[in-house]
């Protein structure tokens, strides 16, 4: 006896779905299965007409607004959050604080969502987060093998390569190979730990503080921390110019 489809989607779940759709629409490469490498700035469009996904997202949005199921202002507010309030600069400030404040670092490793909220960063997609610490003998790498789960409050929306089939499969099968492609060559005695994010549990890498940054302020340190380092595909480098040696 077949059950009718459940159409009672709660508002939070619904908005999450729309946000995910918008994220897909904003990333035309997500419709391209071919691999272009892992450059973070790879965002050019390959086609003159919008992709199927973009068209479907727009059609869905129009229909939902027209039927009064979603308020366009609410949608705009959600997009504004994604564009301006969440992003890797938030994560960088969290990491810099952890580097300069051992008590904060301890709290971050014990209860990441609470420690991150201390700095004022919180939103959906980050209620359950775990920070994993890199060290001289351990390197952590984050992936979502199923789709693109990612810690939005601290990193914003995931880059295209994070969502690619190539990254999602190879991060598990050949993490050292993936890391080499990002220019991260690890010694054989460094253990690589791969963390598979899910909708329920997302990870943030606490990278190693680079040598030679002892005299830097928290703000200067935050400038060094990159999104890729917090995903674990790269290490943090000391700034080549400016700041302290
Ligand atoms: Fe996912």
Query: How would you classify the quaternary structure?
Result: single chain
CATH topological fold name of the largest domain: Nitrile Hydratase, Chain A
Helix proportion of residues, in percent?
Answer: 40-55%
Radius of gyration: 19 Å
Brief characterization of the structure:
The protein has 245 residues and is mainly α. It has helices at 11-25, 52-66, 72-85, 88-100, 102-110, 112-118, 152-155, 160-163, 165-173, 175-181, 218-224, 227-231, and strands spanning 129-133, 138-143, 191-196, 202-206. Fe (iii) ion is lined by residues 144, 146-149.
Primary descriptors:
245 residues; Nitrile Hydratase, Chain A; two-stranded parallel sheet; two-stranded parallel ribbon; 4 strands; 9% strand; globular; disordered N terminus; disordered C terminus
Please provide a written account of the structure:
The protein has twelve helices and four strands; from the N terminus they run ααααααββααααββαα. With 245 residues, it is mainly alpha-helical. The chain has two domains: 11-84, no CATH class; 87-231, Nitrile hydratase alpha /Thiocyanate hydrolase gamma (Nitrile Hydratase, Chain A), CATH 3.90.330. The strands form two sheets. It has a two-stranded parallel sheet with strand order 1-4. Strands 2-3 form a two-stranded parallel ribbon. Helix 4 crosses helix 5 (102-110) and helix 5 (102-110) crosses helix 6. The protein is globular. The termini are far apart. The model is unreliable at 1-15, 17-46 and 240-245 (pLDDT under 50). Bound molecules: fe (iii) ion.
């Amino acid at each position: 006896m077949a059950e009718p489809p459940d159409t009672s989607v709660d508002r939070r779940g619904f908005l999450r779905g729309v946000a995910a759709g918008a994220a897909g629409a904003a990333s035309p490469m997500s419709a391209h299965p071919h691999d272009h490498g892992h450059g973070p700035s790879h965002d050019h469009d390959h086609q003159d007409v919008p992709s199927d996904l973009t068209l479907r997202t727009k059609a869905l949005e129009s229909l939902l607004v027209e039927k009064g199921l979603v308020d366009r202002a609410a949608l705009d507010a959600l997009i504004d959050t994604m564009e301006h309030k969440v992003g890797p600069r938030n994560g960088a400030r969290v990491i810099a604080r952890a580097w300069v404040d051992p008590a904060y670092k301890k709290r971050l490793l014990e209860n990441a969502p609470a420690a991150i909220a201390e700095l004022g960063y919180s939103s959906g997609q980050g209620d359950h987060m775990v920070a994993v610490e890199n060290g001289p003998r351990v390197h952590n790498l984050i992936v979502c093998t199923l789709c693109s789960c990612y810690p939005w409050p601290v990193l914003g929306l995931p880059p295209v390569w994070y969502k690619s089939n190539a990254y999602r499969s190879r991060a598990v099968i050949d993490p050292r190979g993936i890391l080499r492609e990002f220019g991260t060559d690890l010694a054989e005695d460094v253990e690589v730990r791969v963390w598979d994010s899910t909708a329920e549990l997302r990870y943030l890498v606490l990278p190693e503080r680079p040598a030679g940054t002892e005299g830097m302020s928290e703000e200067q340190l935050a400038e060094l921390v990159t999104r890729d380092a917090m995903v674990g595909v790269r290490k943090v480098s000391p700034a080549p110019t400016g700041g302290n040696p």
